[in-house]
Every structure is written in C-alpha cells, then in structure tokens.
Amino acid sequence: MGRQIQVAVKVLDLDRFPTKMDDFLKEAAIMNALDHPDIVRLYGICVAPKCLRLVTELAPLRSLLECLREPDLRTSFPVSTLHSFAIQIARGMTYLEEERLVHRDLAARNILVFAKDRVKIGDFGLSRALQLGKSYYKTNFNANLRLPIAWCALEAIHELRFTSASDVWSYGVTLWEMFTYGFVPWAGLSGRQILEAVDTPNCQRLSQPDACP
User: Fold this and answer.
1) What are 10-48's pLDDT values in tens digits?
2) For residue 170, which of 20, 106, 125, 201 is within the disulfide window of CB 3.0 to 4.6 Å?
3) Structural domains in the chain?
4) Cα–Cα distance for residue pair 86/82, rounded to 1 Å
5) Cα 80 to chain center, whole Å?
6) Is the entire prediction scored with pTM above 0.70?
7) What positions carry a catalytic annotation?
8) What's the CA gap between 105 and 187, in Å, rounded?
9) CA distances from 92 to 34, 145, 172, 187, 193 (A)
C-alpha cells in the first residue's frame, strides 16, 4: 500500500463556470512547471466530464491572512517570525522571476502557512508566463478582469502591464499586511479612490506599521 498524505483540492464546476476552464488549466500548467521549496506543490489534476480538480499540498494552518487575524494564533507569529516569512516569500518570488513568471496576485491571503515557521506562495490563478523577448505581460481591458487594486502597481492599473517589478510592489503591500497583523490596505476606499491616492499628484503610500522593524 502506498504512502498516504493529506491534500488540498480546488474544484471547478464546469456546469456553473464553463468559461473558467481555460484559466483553470493555465493555472495547472504553470504550477506543474514549478519546483521550489517556497512554492506550493501541485500533485496533479483530475479531469471529469463536469468538473476539474487541482490537487496540491495541504497547508494545515490555512492562509497567512487568516492566521494573522486569528486572536489565538497571533501570538505564535512574533516580528522575528514575520521577518523569516518575508525572506521565504522573497525567495519564492525570486524563483518566479527567474522562471519568467509574474504572479499578479501576491497578497497575505495567497500565502499558505504549513507550520508556525513555514510559509509558501500559492494561488497561481492570475499568474502568467512572459513571452520570449518580453519583460512584461500585458492584457486588455475587459469586463471580466478583476484586479486586486490595493495590491497593484500603478502601471498595472493604468496600462494592465505586469512585470516582476509590479510583483515587488505587491510584495511590499503583503509585508504591510503582515506587520499590521492582517489590516486591510487602503481600508474604506474604492478602487478609484485608491488610484487617486497613490497616483500623482497625491503620491500617498501606506504608513509604516508599528511592528515593522
């Protein structure tokens, strides 16, 4: 009898979301090509007539955002641990840059906690590979595109142009989430108001968290 392990399963119901199949398969293809200790591992994909299943490593402690907001868990994540998490995430993002991938959705909600000293980057649903000779991924404006505005660099919002540098911006916002223990960036503002705040002439930035070293 083979070794038994617990896994996480992401399910796409094709009856309800038939137009999502291509994006789901793109996510599977991207994850299948990744091999790094700071990236959530894909075990496989199950194809059935009415649904697709993405089988990955299971993060026992859920997302980092959930952990930081959980009163009973918060004391398990002192600043020194958050610093270690920041390094782990940076290593994973460096690997993605080396593999010519842009994540496009880096946030505390997409960092998964495997132990009280171990996190990995997950959720590659918006991730895209850069074409040969290109340093950016550019998409088109359409009604179905939903950007996480509070985590997006200005060029990503204005031009829908995504690079490793725009991932660095998202990384900075993710650090802000971590060191505020799960606060919402630009809480209470709409997407348009966030853009007005960070764009010229206002050029506002999130304030440094009290816990940030």
Assistant:
1) 999 999 999 899 999 999 999 999 999 999 999 999 999
2) 106
3) 7-57 (3.30.200.20), 62-198 (1.10.510.10)
4) 6
5) 22
6) yes
7) 105
8) 18
9) 10, 25, 14, 28, 31
